Amino acid sequence: MSASLLRLRSLIRKEFIQILRDPRTLMLALFLPIMQIILLGYSATNDVRNVPLAVFDQDHGPAARALLDAYRAADYFRLAYEVDSEAELRALIDGSKARAGLVVPPGYTDAIEGRGAAQVAFILDGSDPTVASTSLSAAQLIAQEHATAIQAARLARQGQAQPRLLPLEVRTQVWYNPDMVSAFFMVPGVIGQILYSLASVLTATAIVRERERGTIEQLIVTPIRPWELVIGKIIPYVILAFLNTIEVLVLGALLFHVPMRSPLGIILLLSGLFLLSGLGIGLFASSIAHTQQEAMMSVFMTLLPAIYLSGFFFPIQAMPKALQYLSYIFPLRYYLIIIRSLLIKGADIAPLRDNIIALLIFGIGIMALAALRFRKNLE
């Protein structure tokens, strides 16, 4: 064997030894592809089912119940809410608890059971074009099949066979994004992704970098307190994240005409609340990692599933139930509902209250846990 091959073999052997000496990084590297293929295989689908539907039934007659049964029988919609006013229906759609609404007018049963025709309103949340377009087609198809069944029953009772106008018409309305522009959905998602990745990745690597260089020991022996060190390290990245948020908002408005229907102050305030979670995750990763590579890999272990399962790319309603339940542990899910509702819908704080509370709990909890662990490491 030539000297060159011997040197190459020795170098390869050395690198494998280095890899085996760092089992944590090795396990992360082997586990990440498995996690990606599972998440993408199950979450990367636009086959929307079980869209939460709010019903405002002003008739309460047998024909109205038959119409609701027709929508309930199809697996496209899930009758999740029954409301008593249009204002309550709007609040549910503003808060993204319901993705569609069905309004049955008074006198619907009388019109159907007689020889007249009836109209119902089907309202769609256009802030998510994928869900809206699928729901639009499904709503029209279900209504047409139901109207055909009603017409057939009428003709059978009357002994007639000639075709007539269908007795039921569903008038669809797409709120907030009538043209179903995809950029209205994606640009707010990019804001969430930027805030999460910048806050977690840069915070984790910045602190571990001090440890790798040995400068963190120099900082510890100074009069700087642990909490001052943490705040001093993360504040620049908070400012950078906010600057990037404003940058995306401006570019989204100029290039893609994405609206901003809520005040900028509220958007930045709730974005800052979401930053707590990202900073806490980055700080926690820095407390368990010894190298920047380990810190990056640890953050990516939470970043990738958060992006796939939060509704950033794919509708949560299209995912298997297990992944839908798993998505509740990722703060990005709640923030995407908030930022899309603020920008596209101009929603008030009240419909978003549950998501804001969830962000607050996650942010304070993760930051407190990370700060305690980081302080213990410093001491």
Description of the structure:
Helix content is 67%, strand content 9%. With 379 residues, it is of the alpha/beta class. It has 2 domains: 51-175, abc type-2 transporter like fold (3-Layer(aba) Sandwich); 181-378, no CATH class. The chain has a 5-stranded mixed sheet, with helices on both faces. Helix 13 crosses helix 14. The longest helix has 32 residues, at 182-213. It is elongated. The two termini are 54 Å apart. The model has no long low-confidence stretch (mean pLDDT 81).
Looking at this protein, list some descriptive labels.
elongated; single chain; 379 residues; abc type-2 transporter like fold; 2 domains; 67% helix; alpha/beta; 14 helices; 5-stranded mixed β-sheet; 9% strand
Mean pLDDT: 81
Measured distance between first and last alpha carbons: 54 Å
Q: What is the helix content?
A: 55-70%
Discrete helix count: 14
Number of domains: 2
Order of helices and strands: HHEHEHEHEHEHHHHHHHH
Strand content is 5-15%
Number of beta strands: 5
Main beta sheet, described?
A: 5 strands, mixed
Structural class: alpha/beta
Strand order of the largest sheet: 2-1-3-4-5
Outline the low-pLDDT stretches: none
Shape: elongated
Measured on Cα atoms, how large is the radius of gyration?
Answer: 27 Å
